[in-house]
Amino acid sequence: MRQNTTSGVTLKYPDAVGFAFNPCLLVASNTQRMDITVSDGTDTLAVTYYGFNGEAYADIRAYVQALFKEKEFGNISYSTTAQKVATGKNIYISVTATTVGGTTVAFPSITVFYVWGALKIGAQERFNGYRRLTHFANYPWTFGVYVTGATSIKFGNNGRSVTGEGVWNVAPNIAAGAQTVIVYDSNGTVSNITFDTTFDFTFHLTAGTRNQAIATITVDREANEGYYMRWLNRQGMWCYWLFKEGAGKYQSAVDGEFWRNNIIAYDQSYGYQGGAVRYQSHNRQEVIPVCVPLVDRDTWMYLLDIISSPLVDLYTGTSNGVPQWVSVNVQAGTTTRDMKAELSDFMCNIQLPEVPTQHL
User: Fold this and answer.
1) Cβ(156)–Cβ(181) under 8 Å?
2) Residues near 9 by Cβ (< 8 Å), separated by ≥ 6?
3) Is 214 in contact with 185 (CB distance < 8 Å)?
4) 41: left (phi > 0), else alpha (psi -120 to 50), else beta?
5) Among 355, 82, 57, 349, residue whose Cα is nearest residue 200
6) Domains of the chain
């Protein structure tokens, strides 16, 4: 955490980059009250926290989360070379402290770039680090990356320009026939972050270097069958994979049922079902097991985020050249991996939208 001491009040506040679902802490000493505004430049929220024993403590993560517009997350243009996405934005925080003695102290505005995600506390998890990815060339795909400034993301020798700080979706620019490509950051603005301090929630930023390798991409030009899905991972970036289909399970349930015979007739002399009073309704749900056989640990961990992602979409084809997606749900359950095995299968169950049925 950073800190600023003004007029006898020490304010500890978040680092330059933060995550909206991790603690977003403001701690002020010698303070009986903190008046806080949180803004993204368009919308502004205000909140007041009161101190105890001369110290005021505020966790503003709920207000940071409220400034994100989740409906914009899936608005991805796969025809655009590079697109800044709504899962990252600058948040501006203003703090005015009232000291124990009643003096008002206004601190300079604080700017934090927040990502709509969360890192594991104390687990030395790395954000925006080196990755090994698979690009399924027959399906829409983007490379997600956080940059601190303008640079060119190079897929081998072919670059894509990004123009400023943000989380970006970069369209692949891979030479024809290439099976593997190294991705480079030409200007050194791809920084990575490690969250490894449990008690003060500090993120350690490692600055990038010019022409550093940031990813290896394996290109699969043959695969064209299965369930192709995208999901938002805990680092605010879209992930993609083509899953193999297992045996489907189709569940039906009664949604109301009533049937009475009026003892008028047991044949059709009064017409079809003329002698009965009937109400009947069922609903139907389709659950499809999907898997990725024999993947290494890094790929398995990459896939694992799909089971907890709130945004999972299934690719359904194109309309006028625009990829179409439908939201699906991953059923809750336990996913296991043999920690001793070099390669493991990844499996989960995809719950498709409810099938419309007739009601009598």
Assistant:
1) yes
2) 28, 29, 30, 31, 97, 99, 105
3) yes
4) left
5) 57
6) 2-78+89-115 (2.60.40.10), 119-223 (no CATH), 225-360 (no CATH)
| Phi and psi based region of residue 156 (left: phi greater than 0; alpha: psi -120 to 50; beta: remaining) | left
Neighbouring CB atoms inside 10 A of 84's CB total 17
The structure tokens listed for 82 are 């590079």
From CA 74, how far away is CA 71, in angstroms rounded?
7
Q: How far apart, in whole angstroms, are the C-alpha atoms of residue 117 and residue 130?
A: 18
Q: What is the pTM of this model?
A: 0.85
Q: Rounded to the nearest 5°, which phi and psi values hold at 71?
A: -65, -20
Cα 191 to Cα 15: distance, rounded to the nearest angstrom: 14
For each of the chain's 360 residues, which pLDDT tens digit applies?
Answer: 889 999 999 999 998 888 999 889 999 999 999 999 999 999 999 999 999 999 999 999 999 999 999 889 989 999 999 999 999 999 999 999 999 999 999 999 999 999 999 988 766 678 888 999 999 999 999 999 999 989 899 998 888 999 989 999 999 999 888 999 999 998 888 888 776 555 555 666 777 778 889 999 999 999 999 999 999 999 999 999 999 987 656 566 666 665 555 555 556 565 555 555 565 667 777 888 899 999 999 999 999 999 999 999 999 999 999 999 999 999 887 787 777 788 999 999 998 877 666 665
Measured CA distances, 158 to 63, 81, 175 (Å): 40, 12, 8
